[in-house]
Amino acid sequence: MQILKGYVFRLYPTKEQEQLINKTIGCSRFIYNYFLDDKIKEYKETGKSKSAFDQMKLIPLLSKEKEWLKEVDSCSLRNSLLDLERAFKNFYNGSGFPKFKAKGVHERYKTNNIKSSYKGNHYETIKLDLKNKTITLPKLKEVKIRGYRNKEVIPGNIKSAVIKKEAGRYYVSVLIEEPLIRPAFVPTSIIGIDLGIKNLIVTSYNEKIENTIKINNKRLIGLQRGLARCKAGSKNRYKMKLKIQRMYQKIRNARKHMIHDITNKLIKENDIIVTENLDVKSMQKNHYVAKGLNENPISEIIRMLKYKANWNNKKLIQIDRYYPSSQICNVCNYQNKKVKDLSIRKWECPVCYTNHDRDYNASVNIMFEGLKIYMKGIKHSV
Ligand SMILES: [Zn+2]
Q1: pLDDT in tens, 232-276
Q2: d(CA 75, CA 87)
Q3: I want to staple 364 with a disulfide (CB 3.0 to 4.6 A). Which of 3, 276, 308, 330 is the partner?
Q4: Is 54 a catalytic residue?
Q5: Could you tell me if residue 103 is inside a domain?
Q6: pLDDT tens sequence across 324-372
Q7: Among residues 73, 85, 194, 300, which one is catalytic?
Q8: Of the residues 73, 276, 300, 369, which is catalytic?
Q9: Are both 152 and 290 inside the same structural domain?
Q10: Is 261 a known active-site residue?
């Protein structure tokens, strides 16, 4: 079995390489917007529109007209069209209509590792050299990198790389397919976790983990006011923008570290982890509106638990989101419908008189419900 892992390195391009990266990002954006426009127009006229593969065939033609497209990695342009197709797929599944890409937002491009052989020699377009701390990328050639100091080599096949610019810095995320040898799964421990807003996590061992990342709103508002006062196109405006981007980057990084720590601990200490299958989208609407921080920590925790469980031969079980985990008394199973009211944080069971903490009680029920699902699965497979 193979698994895909992403490795992120900081890139240190030379001035020329930096220019080429920026150019490639620009061309990828141009292709995206050009064909989005084309799709909209064609659809209005004919009720149909081209697939990404039909669009790809038009790139050489377009390059004759716009010579600068030839200067960049052509793979990145094709990936732009696949991105566009994905955006339309998401639209058909209920997301918003694809938007035109603006300069300075999500500045990135993707390229694939293309393998070939010639006269008995094998070639790959992306090469990672951790000893010499370089990565070879199409058109850019060798670029200096930093990261994963403790590794000399990463075994596996490189599939693709995403080159991105964030707050004036450059990064590359390399996707590597690694072989996975999986021992038999024999669980000896289980944990239920209740995910929430104030306490990010309450576990069935009655541990509470708070969201420790505080956003300095005052400073952010101050910076944004400062930005509004700067003249459009001025150097000060650019500097101010960079300051805001760096602040967001800092918060995002701190949060990522926090979530890595939390999920690493959960995965290390437990064989089966049970959570609710939450409707994160609607929670996001209510609580996480801060611009520039589009990922919600809860969906990030679940996303990490999913892949880390897979890597470490552990199991993540997600129970039905409509299971009334908060209302059921974990001692006597009485269902107290009054607890539906979210403001009730503590309650006493009217049948067995146990005093309950809302979230802790829920996490115990989540654990039992997950155990039930796991046992059922075993019965079916035996
Ligand atoms: Zn009870």
Answers
A1: 888 989 898 898 888 888 888 898 999 999 999 999 999 999 999
A2: 19
A3: 330
A4: no
A5: yes
A6: 999 999 999 999 999 998 889 999 999 999 999 999 999 999 999 999 9
A7: 194
A8: 276
A9: no
A10: no
